[in-house]
Amino acid sequence: MAEARPRVATVDPVWQRIVEEGHAAILAEPLLGGLVHSSLLHHPSMERALAYRFSLKLASGEMSEQILREIADEAYASDPELGQMARADMVAVYERDPACHRFLQPILFFKGYQAVQAYRVGHWLWTNGRQDLAYFVQMRVSEAFGVDVHPAARIGRGIMIDHAHSIVIGETAVVGDNVSMLHSVTLGGTGKEDGDRHPKIGNGVLIGAGAKVLGNIHVGHCSRIAAGSVVLQDVPPCTTVAGVPARVVGEAGCAQPAVTMDHLLSDG
């Protein structure tokens, strides 16, 4: 009989780093011990920690932490992609937000990251035919974080939403991978039309604070939308648009605007 081969341990560098940072945080500030233990160190995986944070932040008199925890645990167990997207989002926030110095900050303190992960659970519910429960998650995310994302919207991985106050993303919106946006961004419709009526945002797009992108239009990959702009027409790839209504004012300025987070317009 052949000898059983040894099992290879699963390597999870993102979660391992969060755990290490958690221990260091307690040493630096013992008063955070209860928070860090209950939210991070008590859990065997990032998915279990995310499910706990989901239930803790969204629980109310209408639905208990226990029920919400069971919902999130089921989602993460059923779809491993949710955990992988959460890790990609974590790295995106760390790399693009100069206020983020440790991996544990988004999962503990940043409502943009937490809102995106809660949306992902709601989207899982929606795609599995549990629309009413998905609407409940949308409502609680809006109430708890000030972020209103329809559970049917499709959002890629590597998403960074900085500050995240007053974000609105409509039902038929599509957001690609590696997109960065700031507070008060709206991806909305233009009226009472039904059907496919919301923007399609390409990969690597940077959307400035207060920008409104309205209607079933396409924003090309690696483009920039300046703060305060109102975008009503398609945006070509690798360009910068600005104004009300927005118009092309130049090239994007770099290959990956969502990563560099450069919002300045050149004088040329």
Describe it.
- The chain is an alpha/beta fold and 268 residues long.
- The protein folds into two domains: 12-145, Orthogonal Bundle (serine acetyltransferase, domain 1), CATH 1.10.3130.10; 152-267, UDP N-Acetylglucosamine Acyltransferase, domain 1 (3 Solenoid).
- Helix content is 41%, strand content 15%.
- It has helices at residues 13-28, 33-41, 46-58, 65-78, 80-96, 104-109, 111-127, 131-145, 257-260; strands at residues 147-149, 154-155, 160-161, 167-169, 174-175, 180-181, 186-188, 200-201, 206-207, 212-214, 218-219, 224-225, 230-231, 239-242, 247-251.
- It has a six-stranded mixed sheet with strand order 3-6-9-12-14-15.
- Strand 14 and strand 15 form a beta hairpin.
- The chain is globular, with a radius of gyration of 20 Å.
